[in-house]
Each structure stands twice: as structure tokens, then as C-alpha cells.
Design brief:
By secondary structure, the protein is mainly α. It is built from eleven helices and eight strands. It has helices at residues 32-42, 51-58, 67-81, 105-118, 122-134, 151-174, 178-191, 196-208, 212-229, 236-246, 269-281, and strands at 12-13, 19-22, 25-28, 48-50, 88-91, 94-97, 260-261, 264-265.
């Protein structure tokens, strides 16, 4: 198992509880309102967040008459206690988080996942995705779960995590790690019972693990759910896999044709060399 070295360690961490990295050590933010204030700015690095928006977020739409003065005191505290004096910058009508060469764990995760999507080599994609997933320390914005103002951001970051997990299982299937991928695929398929692509991956992993009957059962159960809840049949891609499993299509094997992701075959140069050596021996 390999990971990618981070060239830009995050200065602000949101993928879990909200923390500030000071001298290499992560420090939680003291006080719920200060935490909300910092998170509101860190989620919009480089963008001015208005004072009115900040007060609405920090006091959950019920800002008292003294909110503006209190907000300014919270900003001063964050600047002083967490060495954010040059990063939380006052602008006309609000504040902006200016990180310069630093970044947040959210941005690091987004970049790693984006690079994985573009990677031609599934081994590289897997390394990038594993690294991205290590950035999550639990539910995103965990200490702000009681503030509805952060619900949408928390859901978005949760979906980003699920996306990374889904892409990682696809990359693992492409490099022949179907046994490793199986437990994760079972969790994902249960979490998203109508997601055809996840069930396609699960069917393929089961078949490659010598569990044809279970792979067929996954298709059968998915078809029943889709018909019952959406009134549709599985897509041709899933249906074609079902037929290929029924006839023991040899192209489904790992060392045959690589699986298709996004309409393209994924196969690294090292994998091609390995396949060709095996073909010459046979």
C-alpha cells in the first residue's frame, strides 16, 4: 500500500473537527462561535465573507445587538492565539482568509481526487485516493453539527469522501485487488442501494473472487429494487456484465481485458508488461 507525499500540508483542517496547524501541531479552536467563524472563512479561502453573513452563521440567524463587537473580538482572538494575524484580513464589509502558500485539508483532498480522476495509471490513481482519504479524521466539520448553517458544506464534504472511496475501489479492481476491494464495495453498495455502478463493481469483484452465484444474486436484487422503486431495469452496462458472468466470459478476468471506467479501458504500462509475459508463457 502506497501513499503520495503531501507537498502542501494543510494549515487549516476541516475534515473532522476544526483545527489550526501551528508550528506543525494541530490545535482545536476554543469556543463554538470562534470555531464557526474560522470554518466560515476557511471554507471560502480567498473570498470575502460579509460581516452580516458571518454573524448569521456564528449566531445561527439569531445575532444579538452586540454581535458586531463580539465578532470583532473573536477575530482578534483567532489572529492572536493561532497566529492568523496575516491570514484573516479585513476587507470592505467583511473578512477574507488569505493563506498565501498554505492551504486547507479540503483543498488538498479536492486536488488529489482531481488528479486521480485524470490519472491514466490506476496504480497512481489508487495512491492519490488513499492519500486523500487519510485527510478525513471523521465527519467533516464534526464540532459544528449543531449549526444548520454548515449542513450543506458538511454534506458536500461527506459526498466527496464517498466519491474518493468509490474511485478507489474502481482503481483497485483495475489493478487486480478485488479481494481487498470487496469489503469496501459491500459497505458502499449497502449505503447506496440504487447505485448501479457500485453494484457493477461489486459483481465484478465477487466474480473475480470465485463467487459467481453471489455476483448474480447482487444483480438480481438490484434489478428488483430498481423496478420496485424507480420502475426501470438496470442499464445495458450492468446487464452486459450480468450476461458475461453467466457465460464465464474470460475477458472479465483481471489478467484479460482491464475493466472499463468512464468508457475507457484502464491499464498501466507495468500491467501491460506483466500480462504480456504471462501470455508468452501460456
Amino acid at each position: 500500500m502506497h501513499f503520495v507525499e503531501l507537498t502542501e500540508p494543510p494549515a487549516l483542517r476541516l475534515l473532522g473537527t476544526v483545527e489550526v496547524v501551528v508550528d506543525g501541531s494541530a490545535r482545536p479552536v476554543a469556543g463554538a462561535r470562534r470555531t464557526a467563524l474560522l470554518a466560515a472563512l476557511a471554507l471560502h479561502v480567498g473570498e470575502v465573507v460579509s460581516v452580516h453573513r458571518l454573524m448569521d452563521v456564528v449566531w445561527n440567524g439569531e445575532a444579538p445587538a452586540t454581535a458586531l463587537n463580539t465578532l470583532q473580538r473573536h477575530v482578534s482572538f483567532l489572529r492572536r492565539e493561532y497566529r492568523l494575524g496575516e491570514r484573516i484580513v479585513a476587507r470592505a464589509g467583511g473578512y477574507v482568509m488569505e493563506l498565501g502558500g498554505a492551504t486547507t485539508d479540503v483543498r488538498v483532498a479536492e486536488r488529489l481526487i482531481g488528479r486521480a480522476r485524470r490519472a491514466a495509471d490506476p496504480y497512481v490513481a489508487a495512491d492519490l485516493l488513499r492519500t486523500a482519504l487519510t485527510l478525513w479524521r471523521g465527519p467533516a466539520l464534526a464540532d459544528l453539527a449543531d449549526l444548520p448553517s454548515f449542513d450543506a458544506q458538511a454534506r458536500h464534504l461527506d459526498e466527496l469522501r464517498w466519491t474518493a472511496r468509490r474511485l478507489l475501489t474502481e482503481a483497485r479492481l483495475a489493478v487486480g485487488e478485488h479481494l481487498v476491494a470487496l469489503p469496501e464495495l459491500a459497505v458502499l453498495a449497502a449505503r447506496f442501494p440504487l447505485d448501479e455502478d457500485l453494484h457493477r463493481q461489486l459483481m465484478l469483484a465477487l466474480y473475480r473472487s470465485g463467487r459467481q452465484a453471489e455476483a448474480l444474486a447482487v444483480y438480481h436484487d438490484l434489478r428488483i429494487r430498481l423496478r420496485g422503486e424507480l420502475g426501470v431495469d438496470p442499464t445495458p452496462r450492468v446487464g452486459d456484465l450480468h450476461l458475461a458472468i453467466l457465460r464465464h466470459d474470460p475477458t472479465l478476468l483481471v489478467l484479460g481485458r482491464p475493466p472499463v471506467a468512464g468508457g475507457r479501458a484502464i491499464e498501466s504500462a507495468s500491467r501491460r508488461r506483466r500480462r504480456r509475459r504471462l501470455e508468452r508463457r501460456s
